[in-house]
Amino acid sequence: MNRLLRWLAALLLAGLCQAPAFGAEDVAGPAALYRQHCAACHGADRLGAMGPALLPESLERLRPAELAAVLREGRPATQMQGFAGELDDARLASLADWLRTGPATAPAWTDAEIRGSHVVYHAAGSLPASPVFQADPANLFLVVEAGSHHVSVLDGDRLEPIHRFRTRFALHGGPKFSQDGRYVFMASRDGWVSKYDLWNLTFTAEIRVGLNTRNVAVSDDGKWVLAGNTLPRTLVLLRADDLSLAKVLDVTGRDGQGSRVSAVYDAAPRHSFIAALKDIAEVWEIPYAGMASGTIPEPRKIVLADVLDDFYFDQSYRHILGASRDGGGQVVDLTPGRKVADLALSGMPHLGSGITWMRDGHEVMASPNLRQGRISVIDMQSWQTIATVPTNGPGFFLRSHENTPYAWADAMMSPKRDTLQLIDKQTLAVVGSLTPSPGRTAAHVEFTRDGRYALVSLMERDGAIVVYDARTLREVKRIPMDKPIGKYNVFNKTTRSSGTSH
Ligand code: HEC
């Protein structure tokens, strides 16, 4: 046993936080403070253990004030205790700075470590192939409650929860369903991919594919799961039946530069996965139709003029509408693999939240804007912006459903983040406004499978799902939830409704 392990063992025996006395040189620097006070839960290597990973990538979304508050006060009702009583402000500040700095050598996560993390709780085919509940399995919602890392399963007909389960720390990207709606695949920030059997209400397998993960996609044929990582810079292909590792692909551009993955998608009509890359001007396509035979093809690398930060697929997955960092936009036709048009965009459009519908015989696409209070509406044939609808403020999500006349927009990036506005999909006029709870962030709308009810998140610790009748706009009920950041209807997702992002 090396010194550190011996010391950790001693720390555990001493009751975790009751650190034994140390020499002056040990308590001086933040690395020593970390070893003394944090390593037992967060891992000596900062890769996470009983507590989450604490690498700079892990903490990216934590604002400086939030980080300081966690160190000082801890997180209520978790094992994370505050350290204000033990460490003075200067020490806490030095720890916070140190956590934002990467280890001297970039941490690795090898194939052997991925395989070593793999757990199968229920072998494929060992659980009954029928739901253990009465609710319509195609009208279930999964509600991701980020406050305490849980998912609630809602019956979309009775609008009642039927189950609630704990997830890995911080799910990243939406949960993805198998085509039959039975299985859900979830990625967590720290790289865990989990497979959940929604009919039996239990996890079946888990594997840690990386140290910092963006999201997962599941193939249309139900055979493969692809995870996109930020750390290490890899794509990880898993077999969907038991989540066993099939292949790790290094994400490296033509000039040898590695890239983080910004997101992976299932382009079902093309029978391929698409990976969007954050640091290199390429989009990768991995056809999976032939993979069942055991050979995994090399990705097709589509070279672009700009890095695409955020993008939208048309319903056929032939075109991607992308926004680049400098604010410009382009349309890429995936078939020849090249740009076919420029898009007139301004501010910071959030194309990833775009939706489409038919208007005057034309397919149009609309997306919110993270910097400006406006919704841009683009004709999907001419690629021209045909309207700009002013809203209450910069928003994040836009949602609708085939059976409802309105598109619902939030203003969550603005002071009016407690409001939602309804846009008539034909006249493009704002026809209604809702404030579910004054002063509380309201965003992320998802419809029941028939489009009759709209479910809105109040994204607070003591938040709720607020259910509206999508026609009369009357509130139907509130279901209490712990920071419900997103909700996903099995039918709308598996049929790829044009009113929701995929
Ligand atoms: C007894 C175990 C334990 C110890 C000791 C501990 N933590 Fe934690 N820490 C946790 C757990 C569990 C969480 C997750 C809490 C939650 O669910 O939000 C956490 C969360 C955090 C977070 C928030 C991470 C995020 O992404 O939201 C930070 C930052 C953090 N800890 C830093 C520290 C530091 C620095 C120390 C040492 C000074 C420390 N922790 C000691 C268990 C511990």
UniProtKB/TrEMBL annotation:
**Which domain of life does the protein's organism represent?**
Bacteria
Select a single GO molecular function from the record's annotations and give it: metal ion binding
Q: Which SUPFAM superfamilies match?
A: C-terminal (heme d1) domain of cytochrome cd1-nitrite reductase, Cytochrome c
Alphabetical list of Gene3D superfamilies matching this protein: C-terminal (heme d1) domain of cytochrome cd1-nitrite reductase, Cytochrome c-like domain
Report the leader peptide range: 1-23
- What are the Cytochrome c domain coordinates in residue numbering? 25-103
Listed PROSITE patterns: CYTC
Q: Name one Pfam family in it.
A: Cytochrome_CBB3
Enzyme Commission designation? 1.7.2.1
Keywords attached to this Swiss-Prot or TrEMBL record, sorted alphabetically, are: Heme, Iron, Metal-binding, Oxidoreductase, Signal
Do the record's keywords include Lipid metabolism? no
Q: Does the keyword Signal apply?
A: yes
Do you know which PANTHER family this protein is assigned to? DIHYDRO-HEME D1 DEHYDROGENASE, PROTEIN NIRF
Name by which UniProt lists this protein: Nitrite reductase
- The gene designation is nirS_1
